[in-house]
Structures are given as C-alpha cells and as structure tokens.
Design brief:
Helix content is 55%, strand content 16%. The protein is of the alpha+beta class. A hairpin with a 2-residue loop joins β1 and β2. The relative contact order is 0.12.
C-alpha cells in the first residue's frame, strides 16, 4: 500500500471521530452536509431561499432579481441553476412563463435558516 492510500485510509477511519457535532442527546455528522453548506455560503443563496419561501407562490427571474437589492443577473442566474441542480428549488414553465419555487427540502432548509436570521437581526449592531 502506498503512502497516499495509507493516509486516505487513516482519514476515513478518523472521519467518524472528527465530523461529529453534539446536539442535545444526538450526534450528527457534518460531512454529508458540506456540499450544501458550500452552496448556502455563496452570495445571495440564503436570500433567494428565504425570498422564495413562505407563501408558497412562484416567482419569476425578474421578481427574484428585483427583490434582492444590489444583485446582478449573472449571480442570480448562477445561484438559481445551483439551487435547482441540488433540488432545493424547482424551475417550472407554464403558459410560456418560467417561475421558481422551493422544493420540499428547500422549504425545510429555509425553515431551519429563519431562527439564524432572526438571531442575526436581533443582534445586528454587533456585526457592523
């Protein structure tokens, strides 16, 4: 076995020890979430998820673009494609009109983000 294979095996063995988060009586592995966290960390992603959710209606690209101050068509388009390819939003066409809505998992992620957003809002003066 070469040195890289040996290191990879050690990394895999240690993964179970190092990727865990204690939460109450649960232990949660963060490793499967890293891809989604990477997407959520990108500019405007959380804003798009929260903007689309809530009232379950669909929004067009222009509605999303106009609803997010200082955003650009390029970034919003890119984020919508990423969110769609990761099944957090669904792109739908009806009567020649393209709209976007949250999927069930997108709605679940949005709901879990709301307490974080509220906490940041309440403590906004600490972050400026």
């Amino acid at each position: 076995m070469n040195i890289n294979s040996k290191k990879e095996n050690i990394r895999k063995e240690n993964k179970n020890k190092t990727c865990m988060i204690s939460y109450g009586k649960e232990t949660i592995c963060i490793d499967p979430s890293l891809h989604i966290f990477h997407i959520l960390g990108k500019k405007y992603t959380i804003i798009i998820l929260t903007y689309l959710g809530g009232n379950k209606d669909r929004k067009s690209f222009n509605e999303i673009l106009m609803g997010i101050p200082n955003s650009s068509t390029t970034i919003i388009s890119s984020r919508l494609r990423e969110l769609e390819s990761n099944r957090l939003i669904k792109r739908e066409t009806s009567d020649g009109r393209i709209t976007y809505r949250l999927t069930e998992i997108g709605e679940m992620i949005r709901e879990s983000l709301i307490p974080l957003i509220k906490t940041v809002e309440i403590n906004a003066t600490l972050f400026q």
